[in-house]
């Protein structure tokens, strides 16, 4: 298929999917989004789900990234090891759907601290190839499993995953702290107190229980969600910044609602930050991969 013409870029995750139709000049001419994440696709239903995207955006070649390439997705795309570049991702795409659709592989780290990611690698590569960050940037990608990604010479050199978002959700829905964590986590005194406790080196498990203790001793619910969020994000940021150079600017990639509290934590720790729209970085990452596909087609 001719990648010099239009193509469809798809970010297909666990709970939702987003797709963009990109024209030959690199501009988005149409977009599509819904809540049909991979967990909502019935067994054997991915071909029909992909056809639905083409019905919305047209019969163009399609590149997909994210959890759609996991062992629970359409077809597993094996990880490529760090250091990872746009060319490495392109060379290891898994082609399906009569070669009309390609799934971008995730990235793994096998030496030292084992780790894996899917989806964030496209945004990280896109951030540098789209000139949104320097080739040696340090990236924080908040989310259910937050990523701290080190770029070196424009490649993903290494990364660390923090289960911050998942831990918050588990505490909120299935722990003894649940009744005190039903409000939204927002900036304010409780969130800042949580940050301060995390930055001072407080034991995370012990400090979290103070949400429960404060309620029992004061008989007031307080804002347990914001305090717990401050503790978790503060612990996440404290560990992430331990790998940063003094005063190094952190590139925050994601939606504004996901990056807002991380930005406050990073700033409180004495580092500057740069906010980068996650969709823009994703599209730039796919755009960095496409030229290698065209070269393969010509050769």
From TrEMBL:
The entry's keywords: Kinase, Transferase
UniProt EC number: 2.7.1.58
Annotated CDD domains: ASKHA_NBD_KDGal-kinase
A GO BP entry: D-galactonate catabolic process
Name of the protein described by the UniProt record: 2-keto-3-deoxygalactonate kinase
GO-annotated molecular function: 2-dehydro-3-deoxygalactonokinase activity
Source taxonomy: Bacteria, Pseudomonadati, Pseudomonadota, Alphaproteobacteria, Sphingomonadales
Classification via InterPro entries: ATPase_NBD (IPR043129), DGOK (IPR007729), DGOK_C (IPR042257), DGOK_N (IPR042258)
